[in-house]
Amino acid sequence: MIRYIKKFFDYLNRKNIMLICGLFFSLLFILIAIFAEHFELHNPTEMNLANALTAPCKTYPFGTDQLGRDIFSRIIEGSRISLGTAFAVVIIAAAIGTAIGAVSGYFGGAMDMILMRIVDIFLAFPTIIFVLALSTFMRGNQANLIIALCCVQWVRYARIARGEAVILHNAEFVEAAKGLGAGNLTILFKYFIPNLAPKILITMSMDIGGIILYCASLSFLGLGAQPPSPAWGTMISDGKGYLRSAWWMTVYPGLAVSLTALSFNMIGDGLRDLLDPRMRESVSTE
Asked: N or C end: fewer C-beta atoms under 10 angstroms in the chain?
């Protein structure tokens, strides 16, 4: 772990603008989500029909919606929902998928065949269709949305972990550990998981942006956090009928979704260049 931290700071010293910008904006969004109540100018759920559809001004920097609620404060509060969901999904999915993939690649044989066929079944369905079906079946709320996304996302980590585990299975240090009497669990946790960590971290950082987009899409359809929770997708859905008269209702939540997803994707690209030896070699040859 210390070695990767040192590489990380060495990489920053080379002034990789994409990674630095991604880290800056991602940390900014995370801090905003954590300390949301300190940035909110008004109560994000308080209705004031007298101020409905107010254009952006000093009092309401991003304007108000059809119920007079402050859009700026609702976007700030909505960051907690989107980022909380994204982090919960990637952590749970990565833990489940990595464990299954590592076990499948390490033991091989019938276990590998059964587990990978299960993965193939999940991969056979388009992600958004599968999540829509699960969310609808379990009724739309944030907890069920997290469960539905985890049911889909874990297979990605299982595939990656299994591919790396197959390569590591015959590595010399694994054979040496077996020769010294190390058990299967010791080999998996001491040798396999640390070597899988770089690719898993890259995948997690890139998946956060995609999950934020999934959350916004499903909230737009009414399958995420339910009103009056200010989910970004719900805000965009509320504003679609006011595009001509109150463009700010959709533009600002849409920008929040796009910028947050973009910042985490930039981190993923930067981490891939940093932690993937093949990428580092291609960059150095150029």
From this structure: C
Alpha helices in 55-107 (DSSP H): 71-107
Q: CA–CA separation, 233 vs 216, rounded Å?
A: 4
> What DSSP designation does 193 have?
H
Give one word for 23, left, alpha or beta, with left for phi > 0 and alpha for psi -120 to 50.
alpha
Q: DSSP class of residue 226?
A: P
Q: Which of 196, 172, 192 is nearest to 184 (CA)?
A: 192
Question: Is 47 exposed, middle or buried (CB count within 10 Å of its CB: 0-12, 13-18, 19+)?
Answer: middle
Which 3 state secondary structure label does DSSP give 170? coil
Per residue in 174-215, pLDDT tens?
Answer: 777 777 777 777 777 777 788 888 888 888 888 898 899 888
Residue 142: closest CA among 250, 241, 232, 67: 232
**Cα maximum dimension of the chain:** 77
How far apart (Å, rounded) are the C-alpha atoms in residues 218 and 211?
Answer: 10
Instruction: Answer for the pair 201, 269: CB distance below 8 angstroms, yes or no.
Output: no
pTM for the model: 0.82
